[in-house]
Amino acid sequence: MAKPVTAITIGAGNRGNVYGNYAAKFPDHLDIIGVAEPIPLRNDRYAKKHNIAPENRFNTWEDVFKRPKFADAVIISTPDNLHYAPCMKALSMGYDILLEKPISPTEKECRDILKLAKKNNRIVAVCHVLRYAPYFVKMRELIAQGAIGEVVSVQHFEPIEHLHMAHSYVRGNWHNSKETTPIILAKSCHDLDIIKWVINKPSKSIFAMGDLKWFRKENAPQGSTARCTDGCKVERECPYSAIKHYYENRQRLSVLDLPEDKSQHGPVIMEKLKTTNYGRCVYRMENDQPDHYVTAIQFADSVTASFSMEAFTSYHGRRTRIMGSMGDMVGDMTELVVKDFRTGKELKLVPKAEDVEGYKNSGHGGGDWLLAHDFVQAVSQQNPKLLTSTIDESIESHLMGFMAEESRKKNKMMDIHVNA
């Protein structure tokens, strides 16, 4: 690259920092020159990390676009329901976009973004980061090469891990689907997308089942209280104790916006548990996201897939089984095992993100930073073909998610119309 791609980050939370950390590691690739973030602590930290000039720091996304275009690209990592408006404005002003998934909470908004991106000839890269993880790239390559013959069916499993579920989808930002996005999109559009991408055939129809079974008021243990800090009689034995999770084990603390001075962390964490949703009883939230969700999907050429998202596991990551006419494939994102029916031979692979230093330490099996790498190359060369998750490619799995949620609520099979 002759010079780094310049970008403005809108939303300096967890995902904004994932791509920001790529810029910090590879400043000759990506230079973040602006930030919009309403939480002062996050805005200050992000500006300091990237040496952002005071005039390029904004409280809201609207403020960014009051200025004439002053960067190559915009990174949109706001909450799900705040993707659409800044994305449409950025496209209208000629920015290329790195857009965190899901694209937007409604089918109409997703199609609007696609339409404007095409009209203005702009690059919109959707953060379907699993497409860039070497593990899934190798899986797709082997299938395309005929390693297991014709694909017949796929079983894909996403174990969320019980504490992650409680943190993000019971207490956290995505606890209510009406205020954000249904969990099938907020969490599992990665999975619907990777199934579709690996099979590489159009989806036709989908049926879904699932519900919120456990994290409900009627399941609250006797002696429990509104908050873990209110003298709950079962807090010490509860697997979802906020005191144990955040205060004692110091897990998933980025959402609490702790000060730089670590000596203050303890008192601040405890205060947050007394005043925010992260300290509330998991059985007494306003949550409505299903804690188990299964779908059956029909693809072209008689290929079928089943997908299961499960909250109640002690582990996380993805598990996939692919059944083909001449072999099968089993993997857990660490190891991929291919068995050839014709020869009886077994091939074990451990795909890793080792082609560029540091990528293997980024999230989603290296996919986070490998996506960022491909995005800056695509913007620099104005060549969207360098990306595998442009909005043209990524919208189908969103439609699968919208139809899955409709199917779940209506208890009926739904057709998927990509070109509607």
Structural class: alpha/beta
Q: What's the architecture of the largest domain, going by CATH?
A: 2-Layer Sandwich
Biggest β-sheet description: 9 strands, mixed
What is the β-strand count? 15
Count of DSSP-assigned helices:
13
Instruction: List the domain count as a whole number.
Output: 3
Write the layout of secondary structure elements.
Elements: E1 5-10, H1 14-25, E2 30-36, H2 40-50, E3 57-58, H3 61-64, E4 73-76, H4 84-92, E5 96-99, H5 107-119, E6 124-126, H6 134-144, E7 151-159, H7 162-170, H8 183-186, H9 189-199, E8 203-211, H10 242-248, H11 265-275, E9 292-299, E10 304-310, E11 319-324, E12 327-331, E13 336-340, E14 346-349, H12 367-381, H13 391-410, E15 414-415
Parallel strand pairs: 1-2, 1-4, 2-3, 4-5, 5-6, 7-10
Antiparallel strand pairs: 7-11, 8-9, 8-15, 9-10, 11-12, 12-13, 13-14
